[in-house]
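testing teh design pipeline on a random one, pls ignore if ur not involved
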């Protein structure tokens, strides 16, 4: 959906001294099936993912929702299967969201980058509430040259995406994202940042339909130096993803 996020994640990890592999056999983590109550298909997907990632020291994802699914919910899928539950727990224990991994596992400082803009940050529900990601991205963003971080009053409020929630309850979802975009616009920010692409696509779509002039980007893109400008990737919601 947004290849530049993956490239930015790889760049940040390699700068931190990691050797990166992206297995071609990986798929969706299975969260849509899990959230729908389809434990059978979610378990089938999880078994494939567990086997794919077992050889690695760490699994790092630039997404709070995927990270939360693997690290919190995979073990629960195999409550009646001790062998697979042990394998699921081993994967869960070594799976981390990108910024958390860089900050709280590796403890690295990122190379200096420039971004002359005012930005506001959205805390995704999975990242904030499941994974405890709050201060880590802000600490890195506060070191970006020229970037001013301004907090919205509803920074921790759900954007209304919620995976299948926005499909099953579109009227409620739309009201939620309207409140969210009102708050974003009230900050006067040039850029909206977050660590979850689902949230970003939802908010970007609503902002675009409202005619708002604001860039929408994954935090990894800014931290890796991929920002607005003639040589940059298009913003999320620009119709070029």
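output:
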């Amino acid at each position: 959906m947004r290849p530049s996020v993956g490239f930015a994640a790889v760049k940040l990890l390699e700068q931190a001294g990691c050797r990166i592999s992206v297995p071609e056999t990986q798929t969706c983590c299975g969260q849509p099936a899990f959230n729908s109550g389809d434990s059978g298909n979610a378990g089938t997907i999880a078994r494939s993912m567990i086997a794919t990632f077992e050889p690695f020291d760490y699994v790092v994802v630039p997404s709070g929702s995927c990270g939360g699914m693997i690290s919190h919910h995979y073990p629960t899928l195999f409550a009646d299967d001790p062998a697979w539950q042990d394998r699921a727990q081993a994967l869960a224990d070594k799976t981390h969201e990108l910024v958390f991994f860089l900050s709280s596992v590796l403890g690295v400082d990122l190379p200096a980058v420039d971004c002359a803009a005012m930005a506001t940050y959205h805390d995704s529900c999975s990242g904030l509430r499941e994974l405890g990601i709050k201060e880590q991205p802000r600490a890195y963003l506060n070191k970006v040259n020229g970037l001013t971080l301004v907090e919205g009053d509803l920074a921790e409020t759900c954007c209304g995406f919620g995976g299948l929630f926005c499909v099953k309850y579109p009227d409620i979802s739309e009201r939620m994202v309207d409140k969210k975009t009102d708050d974003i616009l009230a900050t006067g920010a040039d850029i909206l940042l977050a660590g979850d692409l689902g949230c970003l696509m939802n908010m970007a779509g609503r902002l675009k339909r409202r005619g708002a002039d604001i860039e929408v980007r994954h935090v990894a893109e800014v931290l890796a130096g991929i920002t607005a400008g003639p040589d940059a990737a298009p913003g999320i919601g620009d119709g070029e993803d």
